[in-house]
Amino acid sequence: MTAWPFGKKRNAGKTNSDSFKDCRVMDVKLTSERPVKIHIDNAELKAQNWLSVTGWIKGLKKGEACATSNLGHIHFILTDRPDVCHQFKIDSSLAYGFTLHFLSTEPCSGLITINLTMDCLPLADIMISSNPGNKPSIPFATRAAKKLTQRLYLNPATGRTIIEDQDVTILSDGTITPSGIKLTFDNTRIGNYHLEVVDLLSDSNMTGLDIGCGIRDMVFDNLVTQDIYPTPTATIITQPAENKLPFRDACFDLVILDSVLEHVPWPLDFLKEAARVLKRGGKIIGDVPFLQPLHLAPYHFFNFTPHGLKEVAKRAGLKLRYVGAQAHQRPEFSLEWFLRRTFDTIPSSEADRLRNMKVGDFLDELTINKDMFTYPTDVLTELSAGFHFKMQR
């Protein structure tokens, strides 16, 4: 068995050692004699207490993977790596990638040892030395918020409370999860709340619900936080296909839908559920995309116009009090997204030509040439202006 930590051979790596000034893999201790190669592409401290490691494994048949450490929670996810399979000309079951997320209530300081296993057999120990520096920490949901979640919980199908419901399990830290289902960690960023939301939740008499919370930079005792994957911010995790909210009627003063409606296949029914759990006069605050490209595929179903929001709110029994683009939703955001993805994905010769064009010349050519760039198929789908379709009964 061989391993390639930083500073050694990295045939498939794209990142140089300068990227690891604050986080270095000091050693990979091998605990098995199996003929396996483990390669680490990247290690990144996303926060003081959140370490993310990516790499690949070759020569061991893909099985049930697990990673543990006595210093924090770990999510170990196997991923497809067609580039590695192509390089070694072997089947995807024998060459695949991994992403490892290490989350702790304490800063990732000093030496961290992570034990990797495959099909319950030891694979390797990864020893990582990290220096969090001045990065912020991500907070874990409070015990008071988890108690609040348990009190307001009600199974929408059976009417059972948290004490009676066998479909869910309360973990040792108080988080509610579906029983007997393994949920995969899936997150790309740390989110922050709108100032209006923070002001509302500063009133201890307010009770809020954040749907699709992800990982947040703030937590509150009076806020129930829900998602479909195990995030340290969440007080309750629900199954991805669940279209009913597991809470009592009229129990929340505020529902937060921050970039959520585009990711549910039934936005009208979802808004009706949000209205059901709201008290009379309660508020829903959130964001939706309009000219954002396709993201989080295949779970991006809709984009919205102000007129569409008004119509769907009316049908859900809600009043649309305000709709408008704020600072993080200006047209410049859409332009930057489209251009960044274009530069990142078109052939380098086309990207160089674009960089050397004046804005006016670029616009002039776009007006007459709608086949200006060679986009990969997936990016063409991501950035397309629209889609032609045909249906049949």
- Number of DSSP strand runs: 18
At CATH's second level, what is the architecture of the largest domain? 3-Layer(aba) Sandwich
Q: Taking Cα atoms only, what radius of gyration do you get, to the nearest Å?
A: 24 Å
- Spans with pLDDT under 50 lasting ≥5 residues? 1-21
The CATH class assignment of the largest domain is Alpha Beta
Mean pLDDT: 88
Count of discrete domains: 3
Which secondary-structure class do the elements indicate? alpha/beta
How much of the polypeptide forms β-strand, as a percent range? 25-35%
Strand order within the widest sheet?
Answer: 1-3-4-7-6
CATH topology of the largest domain: Rossmann fold
User: What would you call the shape?
Assistant: globular
| Straight-line N-to-C gap | 56 Å
Please provide the ordered H/E string of secondary-structure elements: EEEEEEHEEEHEEEHEEEEEHEHHHHH
Q: Biggest sheet, open or closed, and with what strands and sense? A: 5 strands, mixed
Number of helices: 9
